[in-house]
Amino acid sequence: MARRIGTAVVVGSLISLAPAAALAEHDHTFMMSDSRDPASSEISAGVSIEAAQFDNGTYIGSYQGVLPQISWMRGRFGASATIGLYHLEENGLAVNGIGDAMATAHVTVWSNAAIETGVAMHVMVPTGSELENLGMGHAMAMPSAWGVWRLHPVTLTASAGYNRALISLDGEHHDHGPMPLVDPMNLQEVAWNAGADVELGAHVHVGGHLLGGIPIGMGINRVVGGGRVAWGTSRVSTGAELQLGLAGDPFSIRGVVETALRF
């Protein structure tokens, strides 16, 4: 596995639970090998399709989403953008609309043959409707740090970040609880992620991860677990993941299928 591809995977995961791209859209890069000149630019385009069921005590229902993504990388630097298109059914009411848009910039700070570390900045723009439970209703800033350790055929990843709403948190705005339904997040929290991937051969990988958010102040502690299988070459990759909401009711179960093409 190329070091730069591991970078893209971890950076994608750092977004944590907002939006759904956090769990799906970036994992496709895990399967791509790096055969090009690192001094040249690279663009990849991908899409994730997901379906989930939820029951958090206030809302019960399901949603389906399509999340296109575009990514750019050059040497140690990279950026990506994604937005979700959703069909949401909550307490018997069905709505269609877009979710919050996410933009990410990341840089590899230090790397060798086995270990790589870096930092990232994620910004979420409130393009989704808060009233329809498709968006947070305000912008979020999410700086983070990540690390990758490789011992073939195993790759371990870990990350930690700070997610904060770009509004006053001193009581001027009430705590609306984790939102939106399509990927809940607290107004202020510590995001974390830890995972492992094993190469089986024939371009096939299997892996799993745990991720979540620990609220700072009021909020709900959330934990999600997922297992995935993926196949890919230097230009195209496809994967599938099954995720379970283990704490905090982000969802009961969610399935994700993804594919990506690298140029």
Mean pLDDT: 85
Please state roughly what percent of the residues sit in beta strands, choosing from under 5%, 5-15%, 15-25%, 25-35%, 35-45% or over 45%: over 45%
What is the number of strand segments?
14
Order of helices and strands: HEEEEEEEEEEEEEE
| Spans where pLDDT lies below 50 across 5 or more residues | 1-36
> Could you give a short account of the major beta sheet?
12 strands, antiparallel, barrel
SS-derived structural category: mainly beta
The backbone outline, from C-alpha atoms, is globular
Q: What's the N-to-C terminus distance? A: 18 Å
Helical segment count: 1
- Which sequence of strands runs across the widest sheet? 1-2-3-6-7-8-9-10-11-12-13-14
How much helix, percentage-wise, in residues?
Answer: under 10%
Kindly provide the radius of gyration, computed on alpha-carbon positions and rounded to a whole number of angstroms: 17 Å
Topology, pairings included?
Elements: H1 3-13, E1 42-55, E2 60-74, E3 77-82, E4 85-90, E5 93-98, E6 101-111, E7 115-125, E8 140-151, E9 154-165, E10 188-201, E11 204-215, E12 222-232, E13 236-247, E14 253-262
Antiparallel strand pairs: 1-2, 1-14, 2-3, 2-4, 3-6, 4-5, 6-7, 7-8, 8-9, 9-10, 10-11, 11-12, 12-13, 13-14
